[in-house]
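[step 3/7] inverse_fold.run input=structure_tokens len=246
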């Protein structure tokens, strides 16, 4: 395809993607270079024990523990499979001397034989900064995966805050920073004319795995062939899931 053709495809992808994001109400960025922000409000957090931790809404939608003792509050994080998480920002208020919250980004797993959970990253702020933020870096970056075929285990992810029983320590929410990424290339090529190591191999294999293309027939992809408008329509419709009649 010539340069003009690639421009047309790019504009169409961006236009349709922007429309889909606007309809969903949560703008997202497409492409592996743009960071996405998944916001989890404090009102989405749930107390691990409502009898002990009375999760209460305060002014400006800052929530605090109005219960009998310190307790964790947890909120589910929902990101697409393959999302690359780089850091988590917590928005909070602390005016209580010597009393601080603890923040975590956790994963939980279950398989036929056992279950458990681990912290992917955490932040333990100190002091009385008032309204502020604290960043928990994810190092190394973490790829979201909900199912492991080898172990038959499923995963879920959440933000967790250990909130002291003090109205001077309040939570506003958390922001998960993540990027889209292309899946790793397979060890065996799908098409005879795009072998392992060829230019575009990883990207073409990602299109195949996503169901966007099945090649040009005969076990080939025809990487140097021109792209027709009909083929462009197939690529875009398969990539964006168009059109579903309600």
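[step 3/7] decode complete -> sequence:
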């Amino acid at each position: 395809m010539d340069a003009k053709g690639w421009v047309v495809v790019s504009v169409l992808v961006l236009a349709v993607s922007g429309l889909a994001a606007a309809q969903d109400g949560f703008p997202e960025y497409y492409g592996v270079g743009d960071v996405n922000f998944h916001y989890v409000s404090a009102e989405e957090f749930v107390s691990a024990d409502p009898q002990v931790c009375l999760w209460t809404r305060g002014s400006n939608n800052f929530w605090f523990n109005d219960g009998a003792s310190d307790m964790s509050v947890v909120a589910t994080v929902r990101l697409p499979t393959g999302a690359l998480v780089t850091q988590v920002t917590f928005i909070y208020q602390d005016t209580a001397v010597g009393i601080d919250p603890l923040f975590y980004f956790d994963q939980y797993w279950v398989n036929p034989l056992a279950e458990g959970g681990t912290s992917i990253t955490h932040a333990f702020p100190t002091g009385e900064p008032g309204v502020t933020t604290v960043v928990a870096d994810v190092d190394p970056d973490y790829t979201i995966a909900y199912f492991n075929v080898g172990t038959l285990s499923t995963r879920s992810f959440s933000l967790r805050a250990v909130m002291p029983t003090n109205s001077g320590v309040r939570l506003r929410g958390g922001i998960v920073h993540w990027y889209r990424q292309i899946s790793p290339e397979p060890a065996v090529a799908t098409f005879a004319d795009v072998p392992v190591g060829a230019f575009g191999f990883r990207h073409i294999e990602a299109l195949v795995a996503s169901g966007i293309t099945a090649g040009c027939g005969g076990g080939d992809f025809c990487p140097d062939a021109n792209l027709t408008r009909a083929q462009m329509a197939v690529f875009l419709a398969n990539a964006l899931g168009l059109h579903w009649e309600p």
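[step 4/7] annotate
Residues 3-24 form the longest helix (22 residues).
Confidence is low (pLDDT under 50) at residues 1-25.
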